[in-house]
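Lab notebook page, bench 4
Experiment: in silico fold of construct C2
Operator: M.H.
Input chain length: 189 residues
Purpose: comparison with the prior construct
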Amino acid sequence: MPGNATERGVPCPRIGRRHVLCTAGSIMFLTALGGIARAGPRGERRLSLYNPHTDERFDDIYWCDGAYVEQSCKRINWLMRDFHRDAVAPIDADLLDLLHRLIGALETGRSVNVLSGFRTAATNRLLRHEGRNAAAHSEHLLGKAADIRIDGIRLKHLRRAALSLDAGGVGTYWGDDFVHVDVGPVRHW
């Protein structure tokens, strides 16, 4: 039995040099693309959060192998909600990463106490009316800020670590014993 199409009397289609080069280029591109996809960020990011106003905790992985874990983010959104009104909004992923980096910078395994996360405009107005330091255009309104403390970590160390990340706003409220962190413009007070 003849081995190839020409020996069997069937003409082979003529394959030009351009076709061969394009095919080879496509194969190389797809191979490289697959390599890039496989070489993407791997690993896990974990957060340990505690809301002392509601006595709720989150201690789990929120990011895994290059993607945010949807169920974890929903649980974090709930924990960081405006507890005055049970209003939930998405917490900015950059804020979660900032909190994760902050814990790493402090080299602590302790939970971050979240005193305030997302705030509705109504709660923000109420706080301003009560004389609290709530900015009219607070990053809390956008889910991009958290007022935090960490048991066992002195406020000055928490402040210094937050400032070292150079990732957004850092405000220190010495009398109220918390640090405000946000992922807005870099500034401090």
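Observations: The chain is about 35% helix and 20% strand. The mean pLDDT is 85.
Next step: discuss at group meeting.
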